[in-house]
Amino acid sequence: MDHITNRAIIPHIDLKGGGLTVAGVSKTYEAKGDATEVLRDISFKVGEKEIVGVVGRSGCGKSTLLKLIAGLDRDYVGHIGLDDNEVTGPGIERGVVFQEPRLFPWLTVEQNVAISIHETKIPEHEKRELVTSNLALVGLTGFEKKFPHQISGGMAQRAALARALTSQPRILLLDEPFAALDALTKMQLQDEVIRIWERRRMSIVLITHDIDEAIHLCDRIIVMSPRPGEIKSVTEVDIPRPRPRVGSGSTAIRARLMSDLGLF
Ligand SMILES: Nc1ncnc2c1ncn2[C@@H]1O[C@H](COP(=O)(O)OP(=O)(O)OP(=O)(O)O)[C@@H](O)[C@H]1O
Ligand SMILES: [Mg+2]
């Protein structure tokens, strides 16, 4: 495709085959005659089974980018496709987890999870099996009948993850999913995401503020520059899994990311 202009930054981009393609995406919010350019010419690819992180300062357009990939906003320039299909709206092949769990308070945990496949033609007993198995996968067996106010923040975020997983998505879109959690719960959930990914092998886009989280989870990390958000750099993380939380392999990557973020 001709409209990719930053090939120099991402020489490996290949628009054919499976996975997510974001090509030449620009986004401007317009309100009351006021235009805010938020994303400029963003291009990258997330191959099948790859985990790609997006880091950048607050306001650089990370959530906006994720909303576009999720199909929640169609008002942009460029192309977004999954497995050669153009993204034209929300779809069950893309599971989304936001920073806050966004559970319906009047529904139980299992009802909240079942919502993601509510409108599919899957037979009822299979729906129940999917809900049960995905709740088990995130460690919520025994909490199916609880309401959101009866579970902890970490458990609520597990439920949100189960909801995203239940539709058996080709790609998980995670928008700072652990940012509101305490450090220990956060690390535990990061390791669970890796465990789930090793079993399911879906692609993942992880938006995060947390450099260490990105290094721990991702195959590749995109740094975005602010206002308007552009791709500043792409860093491969070639540390074999399981990855240690601390180690010399991550020090150089951390330094590079900090520098690209303008932090020293
Ligand atoms: N619906 C909207 N209308 C107008 N401007 C918006 C809208 N949503 C976001 N913006 C603006 O777009 C810019 C990017 O917002 P976005 O939420 O994508 O940033 P972010 O990188 O996710 O930030 P954070 O790290 O704080 O979550 C901000 O300047 C924000 O004010
Ligand atoms: Mg955001």
From TrEMBL:
Keywords: ATP-binding, Nucleotide-binding, Transport. InterPro entries: AAA+_ATPase, ABC_transporter-like_ATP-bd, ABC_transporter-like_CS, ABC_transporter_ATP-bind, P-loop_NTPase. Pfam families: ABC_tran (PF00005). Residues 20-251 form the ABC transporter domain. It comes from the Bacteria. GO terms for molecular function: ATP binding; ATP hydrolysis activity. Belongs to the ABC transporter superfamily. This is ABC transporter ATP-binding protein.
